[in-house]
Amino acid sequence: MLDVRRMQVLRAVVSSGSVTAAAADLGYTPSAVSQQITALEKQAGTALLERVGRGVRPTAAGLLVAEYADAIGRQVAEAETALADLRAGRTGRLTVRYFTTAGASLVAPAVARLRAEHPRVRVELKLIDPEDPLPDVKEGRADLALVVRAPESTELEGVRLVHLLDDPYRAVLPKGHRLARRRVLDLAELAQEPWVGSEWPGPCLDAQLDACAAAGFRPGFVVESGDYVTAQGFVAAGLGVSLVPRLGLGARHPDVVIREVRGPEPVRAIYAAVRETAPSQPALRTLLDALRDTARQG
């Protein structure tokens, strides 16, 4: 195998036309350059230089090796530039996992800011609902994931949770419902109502069930939808009432009313999850800051 450093010494000799000139350019002694060339010729199994008067010129093999050394030198310089850009956050890639209702309200504005500040960083966005994205974060397949956890959640091993916002649930009632004229409802007032499910089993549904338990009842679900728009359609048809988080109310059905809930107010906590041992990335810091700012503005 040819030694890359010795190849660069040969390249200097070929470029300058003499061992002495190459030694001066490289800061070596002429004998050190000659030794490097001799060692390289042993590795190549053929002569790489031949004497011409007081100078030297490359053999066909020497010219070939020098050309490859030149290409390697350019690639090394390009690699150093690319690495510097990556360290500074000018280039790179971020892989982000998110769930549906966080997309338009949180992720889109944050990614827009990231692209404005780091235009050469590529962002890969993947919808994960209803999968758990934390294994992807912990094992390095994702740089950041948005997750819902109970407000009292602690950080998981290998994953740091950054709290973004608490997303309160709102009561969704059919127009003409007996409680529709009220601006704020006590959660217990919905205890005897038929319920339309809006969540898949998991932390979001747990937030609803925990609040109902604190109010002294368990909701009686007559329909399971797992989708906020579909749940509103069932409510509009008069099949029951539902709870939908504020971020999930972007598209409101014309035949439902939305009311605040208290006693207690159901809330789901939204976090950004990042790997604890992830190397420092300026673009990732920018994305986290953008998510925090967007959450505060919301």
Textual characterization of the structure:
The protein has 298 residues and is an alpha/beta fold. It has three domains: 4-87, Winged helix-like DNA-binding domain superfamily/Winged helix DNA-binding domain (Arc Repressor Mutant, subunit A, Orthogonal Bundle); 96-164 and 270-297, D-Maltodextrin-Binding Protein, domain 2 (3-Layer(aba) Sandwich); 166-268, Periplasmic binding protein-like II (D-Maltodextrin-Binding Protein, domain 2). The protein is 42% helix and 26% strand. It has nine helices and twelve strands. The chain has helices spanning 4-16, 19-26, 30-44, 60-87, 100-117, 134-138, 203-214, 228-236, 282-297; strands spanning 49-52, 55-58, 92-98, 121-127, 144-149, 159-174, 184-186, 194-197, 220-224, 242-245, 256-262, 267-275. Strands 3, 4, 5, 6, 7, 10, 11 and 12 form an eight-stranded mixed sheet that branches. Strands 1-2 form a two-stranded antiparallel sheet. It has a two-stranded parallel ribbon with strand order 8-9. Helix 7 links the parallel strand 8 (194-197) and strand 9 (220-224). The relative contact order is 0.14.
